[in-house]
Write a structure and sequence with these properties.
Bound molecules: zinc ion
Radius of gyration: 22 Å
Structural class: alpha+beta
Oligomer: single chain
Strand content: 5-15%
Length: 356
């Protein structure tokens, strides 16, 4: 599969660029006016910063944001570090947005996160292009490629659709080159930057409310806000996410949608996802044996007898299969410090399917 070019040169300065600068200034003025007006009218509303937050219990939405940030940052790290080996790598910026309007009480969400409009920054991955441009959590996104959110992406019904449309728009822009983002930190003047993407395996990471499991649907890794792995240390949690990501990398959801969910083959797909875990961890700079640790912690409680005779191996067997990969990873690490699983990992499911 051809991959998109790794980088693009910026366009030469031109009349169009100059026009863009003028347009950007007018645009900024247009953005600033309501802020200045509302700041003048609201006055003391911004004083809440002085409230002592040391020993309060964070509200549920803040806890949700903390968990989704953890998931997103870790997912970004796994997806970008393994990009050289992923088919169909995409470009990502390390920016996760959310839409206040998609929550039960949009005004409360805007107030809680100090957003000046609906589209907030839910998370930013450390050292990502978005972070380096200065975008921070709970900034408000005002425009994408010069298009005002309010004008080009009005509220939708169902309400969750808008944030998906915006994520798609940013991804599509990054596939073509840098994306221009205009954002605002609380009442500060809006800022605009061109943000370039970095290659990543094509999986999105999303926290899902009220669920307790983790799943992969081919394009996304979905983690319930009550998933036990969220309480584990970072590397063990990363192992759980790597397992789900492995299902997407190995195209398991797509394969089973085609051939049907045959129990014996599903079992092999689970084993493959387990065995790919430590490879993905190694490349992202985690200790690959965290995959073994994860299974030892998670397995006895959640991977036990229910699955034993069905889709999954017993957790103790799963530990053995994962541990057996560690020396193979060690042997595969190249001079660049990466373990190329696209060449060195042997999929049992693929072998079985090829056998037929
Ligand atoms: Zn699985």
């Amino acid at each position: 599969m051809p991959r998109p070019p790794v980088s693009r040169l910026p366009k030469p300065a031109s009349m169009r660029a100059r026009f863009k600068t003028i347009r950007a200034r007018l645009f900024l003025l247009r953005l600033l006016l309501p802020t200045l007006l509302s700041a003048a009218l609201a006055g003391p509303a911004f004083a809440e910063k002085t409230v002592n937050t040391a020993d309060r219990t964070p509200p549920p939405l803040e806890l949700f944001q903390q968990s989704e940030t953890r998931l997103f940052q870790l997912g970004y790290r796994l997806a970008t570090a393994n990009a050289p080996f992923c088919d169909r790598a995409i470009k990502v910026s390390g920016l996760l947005i959310h839409d206040a309007d998609s929550y039960g009480d949009p005004a409360a969400v805007r107030r809680l996160f100090h957003l000046s409009d609906d589209i907030g920054v839910q998370a930013v991955a450390p050292q990502s292009p978005a972070a380096l441009a200065g975008i921070r959590q709970n900034d408000t996104i005002l425009a994408i490629d010069g298009k005002l959110i309010a004008d080009h992406w009005p509220r939708t019904d169902p309400r969750w659709q808008r944030s998906f449309a915006l994520r798609d728009a940013i991804d599509a822009a990054l596939a073509r080159g840098p994306v221009e983002i205009t954002w605002q930190t609380q009442a500060e003047p809006p800022r605009t930057a061109m943000i370039d993407g970095v290659p990543a395996c094509p999986t999105r990471f999303e926290l899902v409310d009220s669920k307790a499991n983790a799943a992969a649907d081919g394009k996304r890794v979905l983690v319930g806000e009550k998933f036990p792995g969220l309480a584990y240390d970072e590397a063990a949690f990363a192992a759980a996410i790597a397992h789900e990501m492995a299902h997407n990398i190995l195209r398991h959801p797509q394969t089973f949608r085609e051939i049907g969910w045959k129990r014996r083959l599903v079992r092999l797909s689970e084993r493959d996802a387990d065995r790919l875990m430590p490879w993905l961890l190694e490349n992202a700079g985690y200790d690959p044996s965290a995959a073994v640790r994860f299974m030892r912690t998670w397995g006895p409680r959640h991977g036990g007898w229910i699955f034993r005779s069905r889709d999954h191996d017993g957790w103790d067997e799963r530990v053995e299969f994962i541990a057996a990969e560690l020396p193979k990873i060690e042997a595969a690490i190249d001079t660049g410090g990466k373990a190329d699983w696209s060449r060195n990992f042997e999929s049992e499911l693929s072998a079985k399917l090829a056998d037929k």
